[in-house]
Every structure is written in C-alpha cells, then in structure tokens.
Amino acid sequence: MRAADFDYSLPDELIAQHPAAQRDASRLIVLNRADSSITHSRFPALLEYLRAGDVLILNDSRVFNARLRGVNKKSGGEFEVLLLTQNALNDWWVMLRPGKRARVGTEIVFKNPEGNLTEVSARVSDTNEEGHRRLEFFGTPDIFHELDRLGEVPLPPYIQRGTAKEMSEDVLRYQTVYAKTKGSVAAPTAGLHFTENFLEQIRSKNIHVHYVTLHVGLGTFAPVKAHHLEVHKMHSEKFSVPKETADAFNAARKEKRRVIAIGTTSVRVLETLAASSLIASQVTGETNIFIYPPFRFRSIDALLTNFHLPRSTLLMLVSAFAAPGETRGRELVLKAYAEAIAQKYHFYSYGDAMLIL
User: Fold this and answer.
1) Where are the domains of the chain?
2) Omega before 98 cis (within 30°)?
3) CA pair distance 150, 69, nearest whole angstrom
4) CA angle 3, 263, 147 (to 5 degrees)
5) Chosen CATH of 67-152 out of 3.30.365.10, 2.40.50.140, 1.10.20.10, 2.40.10.240
6) Which pLDDT score is estimated for 192?
7) Which of 43, 58, 139, 338 is 20 to 30 A from 191 (CA-CA)?
8) Kind of pairing, strands 55-59 and 259-262?
9) Residues 140 and 151: beta-carbon distance below 8 Å
10) pLDDT tens for residues 303-336?
11) Taking all residues of the chain, what is their mean pLDDT, rounded to a whole number?
12) 289 vs 163, which has greater pLDDT?
C-alpha cells in the first residue's frame, strides 16, 4: 500500500488545542467491525461496551520534559531541542531546530523556563541521515535529572503555546493519571481520557485493568515519508511487561475472554510478543514493529484510540485493526473520520476518542 492512501483533509479548527474541561468529558465514536456501523456517544459510555472478564491493557509510560531551549554560544541564535534517544550518560540523539545552524562542533547553552541562561551546555558531536543531531552535555552529572528544572512538556507541533507559562495545564493534562516510569517524548493519548474514578468504575464491574510500559519515541509519531509502506523503517522503542499483566493476558487468551488495548502503543507491545501463543511471565525488550493493512492481529479483540494524523503509522495500525487480514480497513476508518469531521469532533492528542469493536 502507499502512504498517500492514508491522506485526509482536516480543518484546522478541529485540531484540539486544549484538553476537555474534564478528562472523561470527550466524545466517543464507535466503529463496529461486524457490520461497519458507526455510533456517536460520549467517553463515559465506554462502560456500556465493556463486560465482566474483559482485560484492559494500558501503557503507563510517563512523558518527560524532553524539550529544551538554548542559544548558540558564539552567535546567540536560538535553538529548540527535543531529546529522542539516550546513547550513554549525557549523550543523546535529538531533533534540533534550526538544524542548518547546528553543525558538528556547535556549542549550545541552555535556558531555564524563565528564559535565563544556565550552567548546562551541549556540543553537537555528530549528525545522521535523518537530520538528527547527537549532543554531548556538560555542566550536569546527568541531563535527564535536570529536565524537571530546565525542560518543557514536549507538546506536538500542532498544539500552539506562546510561552512556558501558557503550558501550565499541560504539565498535568499531557500525562495519564496512571503514568509511572519516565521515558516517553509523546503521551499515549488514548489514556488521557481516563480518570481515577472512571478506572475504579471499570474495576467494579469485574473488568481487569493491567499495564504495559512502552516509551513512546519518534517511531510512533514520525510521518511515513516513503511512497510504499513496505520500505518504511520504524524506530525501536523500549517496552516492558510485568508478570501481573502477562498472567492476566495469558488467562484471558486461554479462557477466550476479550483483551482490549487502550491505545496503539499497547497494541504494539502485545503484537510484538504475539509470535508465541502466551507471553512469558515478565518481558523487557525493544520493538520496531510496523503494523499496516493487511496485518493479522493475534493479541487483541478491541481497541480504544484517538484520531491520528494523515500518513502516520498510527492511522495505518488503526486501519489494519478495522479489517484484520484485509485492506478495506482503510476505507472503514477514513469513512469514520469523515463522519467525525462532519460532526465536528476534535482530533489528535487532546482530541476525542474512537472505539473499534
């Protein structure tokens, strides 16, 4: 299939710039794969589609303040840095803007959120084919431990904020209520709709809630630039599955109870491990799995997700799940998207939700 097959047009005003007033106050579109029907509802109605014995799998990775701002030590020119992958202590691959001004040897002095220069600096040590820069950090024992002080919430570029002060709500809302281990540069957004109270309501119905950890990186949100999907290369992302989750998943598979993935990142973990019929009692690893039609799923029975960008690997994954083993899922999902646009749903990270049954 071609990347262009996953294009669609979205009015700018439907890109959610802020979260809903309450986490679970968003809208919910439901796509039923059995008859291709589409139903419009509100997020709390998710309870109506769950049943006792279901196992929900959520990604509990925590977003860290991966965006830094600094200046060229010589010229004073401004730089914006997004940390991507840690190679070693104080050694990171980053996205850096403007990249053309960041040649090997360029030194950057970083600011705090108030705009004041700090003692922390970095030097560009390398570049790669994708235009990323490799930075060696100085003035700190470990830059990762400075990010709460110096970094910003790594909001995606389609969410507009003027200053760090304007991002005060994002510190809480661009994070799931169950986020645990720091490691993601983007939120697992399907989970943003859940509150502690709503999770308790789910558990009270004898629905089992369990967690995996996948640290969301560039591979999840980068657009597919290749014309044909077969040649696109995904970046690797680290994941772990605790014993409790593995046991719950294995029991559900044996007893033919439903496994419901909350978010595409949870799907990627489970499908990575689905080569064997059961998941080992505890697993850690990396995945670069790329799921697109006509992928055949082996781990999940339903998927809760958000609306995704055109040509994104996430839209391709959702399209694959809408019709496993076939290519028509793309048409089903884009039809649902078109209806959501007509009904003025909000899209992307802070937008509304979609349930595929």
Assistant:
1) 3-63+172-356, 67-152
2) yes
3) 8
4) 95
5) 2.40.10.240
6) 98
7) 338
8) parallel
9) no
10) 999 999 999 999 999 999 999 999 999 999 999 9
11) 94
12) 289
Model pTM?
0.94
Biggest CA-to-CA distance, the chain:
65
